[in-house]
Amino acid sequence: MQQSDLTWNTALLYPAPDSPELEADLDSFEQLAADFRSSYFERVAALDDPALLSAICGYEALQSRMAKPFCYAHLLFAADSGNEQFRALSQRCSELGSRLSQQLLFFDLELMALDEERFELFRSYPEAAGYLHFLDGIRKFRPHTLKENEERLLTRKDLTGVRAFTKLFDELSASFVYQMELDGKQREFTGEELLSLLHHTSPDVRFRAMTTFLERHGEHGIVYNAVFNNMALDHGQEMELRSYQTPIQPTNIGNEIPDEAVEHLMCVTEANYGLAQEYFRLKAGMLNMEKLRNCDIYAPVAKAERIYDFEEAKTLVVDSYCKYDPAFGAIVQAFFSERRVDVMPRVGKSGGAFAMGISPDLPPFLLLNFTGTLRDLATIAHEAGHGLHFVISQKQSALNYHAPLPLAETASVFGEMLLTRKLLDNEQDPIVRRSLLCAKIEDIIATTFRQTVLTRFELRLHNERIRGLLSNDRIAEIWLEENGKLYGDSVEMIPAYRWGWSYISHFIHSRFYCYSYTFAELLVLALFQKYREDGDAFKPGYLALLESGGALSPADTARLAGIDIKDSGFWQKGYDVLAGLIEELKQIA
Ligand SMILES: [Zn+2]
Fold this sequence. Notes:
CATH topology of the domain at 3-139: Butyryl-CoA Dehydrogenase, subunit A, domain 3
Helix content: 55-70%
CATH class of the domain at 3-139: Mainly Alpha
Radius of gyration: 25 Å
Bound molecules: zinc ion
Strand content: under 5%
Strand order of the largest sheet: 4-6-5
Largest sheet: 3 strands, mixed
Number of strands: 7
CATH architecture of the domain at 3-139: Up-down Bundle
Shape: globular
């Protein structure tokens, strides 16, 4: 394969960043937004049903048109952020985007402000049926929204309040350069580099890496204490102002997952902590250790890592989708044959990986940074799953295109499972099989059990802060207690772990986000289990789930595949899959 085939072909969207087509699109938007505004500003409440529907359709068409150049600019920038022309285009689009959203914001606000009676009337208008989830999405925070001038005041004071603490947290954490000795040499490390040493073969290196990382945070304990206490206090005050019953409620409303379902999810998870402990004991045995310390959890079990070349990796991924359904395989294959994937790492290219779905009438794109590891292979399967989801949900209109957040990882994690299964079934070498199983099990433990530990800690932090200031000793106590429930006597926590809470940016940036990972992972494991039990009969339901995109709530979407998210038996199904994997590992360990 030619090297050029491994970069993406953005000409599928526009011929070039200076093409007249792109220029014409960008030029037209301010007028279009102004026209929309002059048609509907301060008039939404007075529109009759057909007129309101036509306003929503107009709004949707506008959003859909704007997505194309903005996504194009983002793709160019992600592939080469050092290119001046791409940087300028990206900056121009973000400024234009901000002006457009200010112009159009009124529409959401006026939909939110419609009185209950008018809103219900419109909801029952048959032609509006396709937009119910969109409308409910806009209205869901209505009971907790303050008067406009109060909202503006809060936003303004946040700048010097909670947002200032967030910024302080980011700047402090990003400023750290760590010193540690490795291979006989004292050298500098970034935090990312230190944490990646948790995969090192030497127990001593793993211990020192984790300790160095955490103790550095501990040196700034005064700042982290102020940040965490003030974040929690600020949220406590907002709860009171906005009449929320519990600290987690706003997150659950945003995710459209009922409080009871979240509590169920966490209780079932906690009831399965024994599975993690069983694995940790097994792993201690594989590493010839009496007992694991928490810095050993990601230690490699094989001496050398298997490296894949890209052709081989791509074929494995496409085949694993094909084996599930040839139509899925064809969709994934098309990403590569139509050059909608940028594969290799380069200077100036953005790190990590992503999939970008633009709109229902344009093809999605994938960005990878392939280096040949098993992790990279799993990433192809993951991003291809997102891509597949974006293609399959193109039956929906633009406002219903993107899956609701808790379901956004469904196809990607399901795709990873298909790949793991294929690799395990094809692999004869017990050493490689063991590594594959450990990688998958550790991945599941990190996205389910650990996220529940984090969420329980976060809940206790918020609830205790309502009663008064928390010292770092108290925060560490809660932290170690919640972690201790997971580890039991199977893992010993290293002394520096008392600072383990201080670097988790989700606590600061996206409150109570962590349980979404548990939700997504278990949903997929349960779907996967259902697939293994029901075989072909499972497939139409799963397809319907993917096809529905963002047209329905997470509960209604999951129901299409025969899953009731309020049923705790369903969550247990996910852990049964994990138990099966651990059993498989025991056979070869
Ligand atoms: Zn993902």
